[in-house]
Specification:
This protein is an alpha/beta fold. It has a domain of 246 residues: TIM Barrel (Alpha-Beta Barrel). The protein contains 14 helices and 13 strands. α6 links the parallel β7 and β8. The longest helix is centred in the N-terminal third of the chain and has 15 residues.
Length: 365
């Protein structure tokens, strides 16, 4: 199958592959810039920009190197630096920014991304019913919400059309094999009816009711055959995150990449998260410490996600997600939280973005 270009709003993506937005520090300037340079869509994560390059650009950091409050954890100034660096790599090719709807400062972060030069905003971690409000001053910015069901897309389109006279420029439907936070509760992630190949076709049909909105499949997609399968089910493109961690250009610490390279299938599990939904990652020493009540003390410094309620939910699950993802960015294997999709154990080499895209397009392994 020849992969056709993907049209999103006023932008055309030559290779219909979107690199998943991965924070903290997994998809920033180097990865996103090189993905867009090679013709796919690079996505910069807005999460945890305050720890970028060892926190040297962060306005307010406490003694233990944690960014203080959301304005520093989600630093607009640093997000702009990241976009500027990515633009030096990819020029004027489309670049997207992923902004979690659960972020405690969502509207401000979206505006920061638009001002930094994002051509598209991708939002999940909650149904982003107010997403158009955040970009009302940026009419050229394309909006791509993430949903898990056709019903969710219908609700979202109805609300957007009625309240904002706008519809999504594309929609990502994400199955429960993705890395990080899921759109389903723990038990729901294992139900056959919630797997990507089952939820994708109804979303495609619902999208037709609103003017053939392009549908992008995500969650567990690994190789060319998976991409072809999703296209045959009606997808216009795919989103892939974990596969890009295994690239030279990925912004993740070398130790992060090694954790995935060393992982086995049984190591990749769903864990409780302060966000309220399960999250998938590699079981490491952190989880052993949590089970034995030896994990680092929870003290909400960054106020990163609203559902955590200033650390109350973090205390219940035994860890602060901002601190532990930041540790992973710093390469601290003992206390880091290492997110990955269900296929992360299949990573067995580090190659360039160019080589990876070639394999995905041509079907080579």
């Amino acid at each position: 199958m020849i992969l056709k270009p993907l049209k999103i709003g006023k932008y055309t993506i030559d290779i219909p592959i979107i690199q998943g937005g991965m924070g903290v520090g997994i998809s920033w300037d180097q990865l996103a810039g090189n993905v867009s340079k090679e013709g796919a869509l690079g996505v910069i994560s807005s999460v945890g920009t305050g720890v970028y390059q060892g926190r040297k650009y962060t306005d307010k950091v406490l003694k233990d190197a944690r960014p203080f409050e959301a304005e520093n954890f989600y630093s607009g100034k640093i997000l702009k630096i990241i976009f500027e660096n990515a633009r030096k790599i990819c020029g004027d090719k489309p670049l997207a920014c992923n902004v979690l709807y659960a972020s405690s400062d969502y509207n401000r972060i979206v505006k920061d991304a638009c001002e930094a030069g994002a051509n598209m905003i991708i939002t999940g971690a909650g149904l982003p019913l107010t997403m158009p409000e955040a970009v009302k001053d940026y009419p050229d910015v394309a909006l791509i919400p993430i949903v898990s069901t056709a019903k969710a897309l219908k609700i979202l389109c109805r609300r957007w059309e009625k309240t904002h006279n706008r519809l999504p420029d594309a929609v990502i439907v994400e199955g429960p094999l993705s890395g990080g936070h899921q759109g389903f509760k723990y038990d729901e992630c294992f139900l056959p009816e919630n797997q990507l190949e089952q939820i994708l076709p109804p979303v495609v049909e619902e999208a037709k009711n609103w003017g053939n909105i392009p549908v992008i499949a995500a969650g567990g997609i690994w190789d060319h055959n998976d991409i072809v399968k999703m296209m045959e089910l009606g997808a216009s493109g795919v989103q892939m995150g974990t596969r890009f961690i295994g690239t030279v250009e990925c912004d993740a610490h070398a130790n992060f990449k090694q954790v995935l390279l060393d992982s086995k299938k049984e190591d990749i599990q769903l864990f409780k998260s302060p966000v309220g939904y399960p999250a998938r990652g590699v079981k490491t020493n952190l989880h052993t410490m949590i089970e034995e009540n030896r994990a680092p003390k929870v003290a909400c410094i960054s106020n990163c996600v609203a559902p955590c309620n200033r650390g109350e939910e973090a205390k219940k699950v035994g860890y602060c997600i901002a601190d532990r993802l930041s540790d992973a960015y710093d390469g601290l294997r003992e206390s880091g939280l290492f997110f990955t999709g269900a296929n992360g154990y299949r990573l067995n080499e580090i190659i360039t973005v160019k080589e990876l895209l070639h394999k995905l397009i041509e079907g080579e392994e």
